[in-house]
Write a structure and sequence with these properties.
Rossmann fold; 2 domains; globular; seven-stranded parallel sheet
């Protein structure tokens, strides 16, 4: 019988996974993430299939412990947390779950933008502490402003639709232009420098690649308006953390709404708290900077939850099981390597 191990399993996923695996596969459900910090249990090592979320870090050290691994079924769109080179070298198929969170992530990005622009969290905290300063809570409207969207795939396109509904002018930066976005939402495609210089707000929706790693660095921030607000619900590594902290502290930009951070796992993964020596110098620096970012008054940070709706989670589970069933029938769906 095929053995499957599901990592990063949340309570609201358990019933579905039990119902769809019982009497079909030998399966294990664990809340733990898969990484090289914790020892891999012996009963997992001969699994043919594993399923992980983005909270797992699946590198060579972990993968080499599996003796019979054939498929990694991702419960996410992104796959930068997987060592694809190792998987290709060892004939391990990696499949993702595309299009599950288009609306969820786009709506959350709008929520972050509204929060920063209208100082919702700041006003809530001040009001709760009975220390309201109305002058410090003056916000700005979205309508008539220019929003720059970096990455106009499924999520970025949905964000463009929502931005159009707010009567915003839309600039888009993407390798491929979509005529329907130009016609339906008046998207104007621009080069990256133009988007930086002309946007009042910028929202990131691109997958992480070698080419866009740290695309928002010191030079990029200096090209942005001092009134600009940056929203990131994509991947933390798009932004150089030190450069962002400097830009916000020096008021080179006005604010940021972040659902993702560099080295965010060092905050959310309790294994790092057990032994801080596991942190390398770079991760330790980023963790300190992330903590400092949280203390800035013009920044909203959330714990990578843009995807986290009942509807999106159900789509993730449905697609994951479809991927697994198809794979066992000899069909590879949603392959990323």
């Amino acid at each position: 019988m095929t053995k499957i191990v599901y990592f990063d399993v949340q309570d609201d996923e358990k019933d579905f996974l039990k119902q769809n695996n019982e009497n079909k596969y030998e399966y294990y459900l664990t809340e733990k993430s898969l990484n090289d910090l914790s020892e891999l249990p012996q009963e997992y090592k001969d699994a043919q299939i594993i399923s992980v979320f983005t909270t797992s870090r699946v590198g060579k050290e972990v993968l080499s412990q599996f003796s019979n691994l054939q498929l990694i079924a991702l419960r996410s769109v992104g796959f930068n947390h997987i060592d694809l080179d190792y998987c290709s070298e060892h004939s391990i198929v990696v499949e993702n779950t595309p299009n599950y969170g288009n609306k969820s992530v786009a709506e959350f990005a709008i929520a972050l933008l509204l929060d920063v622009c209208r100082k919702v969290t700041k006003s809530y905290i001040e009001y709760k502490e009975m220390n309201v300063n109305v002058q410090s809570l003056i916000g700005q409207e979205l309508g008539g402003k220019t929003i720059g969207i970096v990455g106009l795939g499924a999520i970025g396109s949905e964000f463009a639709r929502l931005a159009y509904g707010f009567d915003m002018n839309i600039l888009g930066f993407d390798l491929h232009q979509k005529q329907e976005l130009i016609e339906n939402y008046r998207v104007k495609y621009a080069d990256f420098d133009t988007l930086l210089k002309e946007s009042d707000f910028i929202s990131l929706h691109a997958p992480l690649t070698k080419d866009n790693y740290h695309m928002f660095d010191e030079a990029a921030f200096k090209k942005m308006k001092p009134t600009a607000i940056l929203i990131n619900t994509a991947r933390g590594e798009h932004i150089e953390t030190q450069a962002l902290y400097n830009a916000l502290s020096r008021k080179e930009i006005a604010g940021a709404g972040l659902d993702v951070l560099e080295s965010e796992e060092t905050i959310s993964d309790t294994d790092y708290l057990v032994d801080i020596n596991r942190l390398n110098e770079c991760a330790l620096k980023q963790t300190i900077l992330n903590t400092r970012l949280q203390q800035l008054p013009n920044v909203i940070i959330t714990p990578h939850i843009a995807y986290n709706t009942k509807e999106a989670i159900q789509r993730i589970l449905d697609t994951t099981m479809s991927n697994i069933k198809a794979f066992l029938d000899g069909v590879v769906e949603n392959n990323v390597n």
